[in-house]
């Protein structure tokens, strides 16, 4: 009995160390998880959202049905408006584009004090890569989140890291990469990557 007691007490102490070792290993792996070093993705607002190539806008000029219509931003960043020709749209907000059209109509003496509104009728697509069932390009829908984009892409694979993702976004003409949680809002043109988890 005396000979066994040191062995028994040693064996009882081993399991007490294992959870601590396991916890430390998990914390180390979590700290090295893909995307963990990324800063949070900055959110933009509707007022600062700028138009891009391939998007479609609806231009409404009050009292001028022949000038009102839907126009696609071409690869040169312009829309082609009747009587005005090419109007620069890429990189502009909807309010800025409306003001450009209104000013152009007035300067050409086509209309006095025209009332112009611009709204987006078709957004740029979004892209998703990595550990989803169907990576690729998808139409943007207002209110889309990182989680809904993953769902549209067929859901996560069994290897996916499902809490945080990488998102590439153009802000003020600069491409920014940041960490986005599941509920983060996705914007037109965003490229989201779902990482593979380590364990």
From TrEMBL:
Residues of the Polysaccharide export protein N-terminal domain: 45-120
GO molecular function, one term: polysaccharide transmembrane transporter activity
Superkingdom of the source species: Bacteria
Keywords: Signal
Entry-linked Pfam families: Poly_export, SLBB
Domain Soluble ligand binding: 126-178
Endpoints of the signal sequence: 1-30
Protein's recorded name: Polysaccharide export protein
Species for this entry: Acidisoma cellulosilyticum
